[in-house]
Amino acid sequence: MPKQLFFTKQRKPPTINKNIETYCDVDEWHGLDTTASFRKYWRGKNMRGWLFLDLRRLVKPDVVASNEALPFREGTFTELFYDPPSVARGRGQFVGSSMEVRYGFWRKKADFDKNLQAVNAEFIRVLKPNGNLLFKWTQGSGSIRPLGFCLDHLSNFAVSTSASFPSKSGNKRTRVHFVVMRKRST
To answer: pTM here?
Structure first.
């Protein structure tokens, strides 16, 4: 098992896929995608030094675990990528579609709020002192929460830069936000 991994107390230990070294050298962990899905965001990009974590085995992550209890040592990563589902079950155009399978959904707002609270603590723990969190959020009529709500609840981080783009879905009111956040100094 790679020496960088450290398992925190969890009900059941995460699963680590064999040959994880094909993604990065043990001593060169750079980033962690905490919501890997099917790695769609990463197509055509250099993935060397990145690990992919997701709770769903279906999406074939490197590490099967919750982003609410990361199985890594403090200060392991330079960058984290967080692209949580932005819709609740039964809302918007995702219902029953392949998009819902690919990106997931929240059963209710309280589940998303709980996740935001947990990742706020976990992300700050596993990031190196000068680490960054790249937060991707899709805001549209079916979004579970507005972007401002999410940023307020990621209180261990301060916005460094942000950009907003129209969604590729064709819906003119849906926007994709990329927000780079830095660890707040303690």
So the answer is: 0.78
